[in-house]
Amino acid sequence: MIEIKGVSKRYDRHLYVLKGVNATLKERVTTIIGRNGAGKTTLVRILSTQLFPTSGTAEIEGLDILKDTKKVREVISSIPQESQLIGILSPLEQMQLYLMARGFSSSQAKRESEYALDELEMYEFRNAPSDTLSGGMKRKVFVAMALAAKSPVIFLDEPTTGLDPLSRIEVWSAIKRLSSKVILTTHYMEEAQELSNEVLVIDQGNIITHGTVKSLLSTFDGKMRAEKLEGREFDIKIANVSIKYIDVNEVDEFVRKGYDIKRINLDDIFLSKGVMLES
Amino acid sequence: MNPKFVLYFAWYYGFYVIKRGPSYLLASLSLPLSLLFMVTIFTHGTLIAFAIAGGPIAIVAANSINGAADAAFFRIQIRIQDLYVATSLTSQDYMFALSMSYLVFSLPGIVLYAILGAYFKVFTLSSALPIIGLLILLTLAISNLSFIIAGLLKHIRNVWGITAILSIIMTVLPPTFYPFYYLPRGVIYILSVSPVTPAAVLFQGILFPKAVGMYSSVQLPMFIILIVETLVLIFLGRRFIRWRE
């Protein structure tokens, strides 16, 4: 379990990236969703002991991130969003180094690295210098690191950004097979819906909604999403697209008005909460 | 301390850079070998022994100061440092591993100079141990200086320019390729602000005891200066590495 207790982060005198975030993350896979600059990465960096909070703290598996840092680092592994591989070293070498930094023996590190690379269809590239790999392959190596580490808690900051659809499915499948608790950030609602048991929507440093996917979607029970370019009726307008949440019995009427009708998904949680906050 | 990580990192990041990017090795050898050529020509060979003796110091110092670019690149650009922060690794392990990788990367150059030194009878077997000790000390001092520089940088764009300037200033100005006793005593102490100067003075004291002769009184102060500078730089390096921001 992860308990976030009033975590704030201020970079400048007035620039608060996180504003007293409180949450208890109980489910196996929790997804943090938010727009660019919402504070997702800052929250993950604080929880994974890479960044000090300005105030507040958090507990991971009962260990305080400020007081028990060393022990916290033994139970977590964290793959930062912007990390890139060292071009001159191969994926296998870098995975071995990462696992040895976590206390694995060299033979154990090699075995686990090869296994994880194989799981993500990267085995044949294990000895290639990383600067010869595509962007997606490089990202998969980082995911393989997290898989091989087998930590009780894994933080994945945008693990599938830049991956092609097939690679994305491979990563999803690997995450689903994990027994660890996973905290991931993503821009892809489809990914959040596919993987997570729990969703935390964050905007401008505040949590705007938090719950299981089922409970969040239940707020839209009996609703559909109607979309139209420059539609007159709307709850939200993004660029030229008008979005209106309608009852199921209004579907025919809105189809006649030229609206496209879509099923409710996590996009709608994000859109209704996030965009309305801004407007 | 995680010696396993330090050893593997030093080997991987030292040796594989040589194997997969030999141009970096040639680049690191080009300045000391050019200076060896020039010193030999301009002094009609009289200072060749000093220019050979200075080679390993220049290689180790230049490679270690270039570590500022690596440390900044790993922290700011490719965020590898972040990856390691959230592990059991300590900042000292990480810094020591990087420092040792520069020493491994310097090995081919040191071996080349050892061969030259043996051929010109500059190096002897009895001088090997103190010389190796000095090179390790110099690697630690300069690489920690490079971590301080890297920690002060907010952007990556200037790091290669800064390290290129420092690399030349720190290897050419100190008495690396010429006898330290050509300099007034006061200037030696001023130049000893860079650990390369005491290392070079001590190197010459070990290799050319007869030539150094009456100037040998600076050896002990230079040894103390090098030890103190190394300890101070290691302490400051730990503060500036920005392990957990």
Set down the secondary structure blueprint:
The complex is a heterodimer of chains A (279) and B (245).
Chain A: E1 2-10, E2 16-25, E3 29-33, H1 40-47, E4 55-60, E5 63-64, H2 69-75, E6 76-79, H3 91-101, H4 106-119, H5 135-149, E7 153-157, H6 165-177, E8 181-186, H7 189-195, E9 198-203, E10 206-212, H8 213-218, E11 223-229, E12 236-238, E13 241-247, H9 251-256, E14 260-262, H10 266-278
Parallel strand pairs in A: 3-8, 3-9, 6-7, 7-8
Antiparallel strand pairs in A: 1-2, 1-4, 4-5, 9-10, 11-13, 11-14, 12-13
Helix pairs in contact in A: 3-4, 3-5, 4-5, 5-6
Chain B: H1 3-20, H2 22-42, H3 48-65, H4 67-77, H5 80-85, H6 91-119, H7 125-152, H8 159-172, H9 185-191, H10 196-207, H11 209-212, H12 219-240
Helix pairs in contact in B: 1-2, 1-6, 2-3, 3-6, 3-7, 3-8, 3-10, 4-7, 6-7, 7-10, 7-12, 10-12
Describe this structure as you would to a colleague.
The complex is a heterodimer of chains A (279) and B (245). Chain A has helices at 40-47, 69-75, 91-101, 106-119, 135-149, 165-177, 189-195, 213-218, 251-256, 266-278; strands at residues 2-10, 16-25, 29-33, 55-60, 63-64, 76-79, 153-157, 181-186, 198-203, 206-212, 223-229, 236-238, 241-247, 260-262. By secondary structure, chain A is an alpha/beta fold. Chain A has ten helices and 14 strands. In chain A, strands 6-7-8-3-9-10 form a six-stranded mixed β-sheet, with helices on both faces. Chain A has a four-stranded antiparallel β-sheet with strand order 2-1-4-5, covered by helices on one side. A four-stranded antiparallel β-sheet of chain A has the order 12-13-11-14. In chain A, α6 (165-177) links the parallel β7 and β8 (181-186). In chain A, 36% of the residues lie in helices and 29% in strands. Chain A folds into two domains: 2-216, P-loop containing nucleotide triphosphate hydrolases (Rossmann fold), CATH 3.40.50.300; 221-263. Chain B has 245 residues and is an all-alpha fold. Chain B has one domain. In chain B, 78% of the residues lie in helices and 0% in strands. Chain B contains twelve helices and no strands. Chain B is globular. The two termini of chain B are 21 Å apart. The mean pLDDT of chain B is 91.
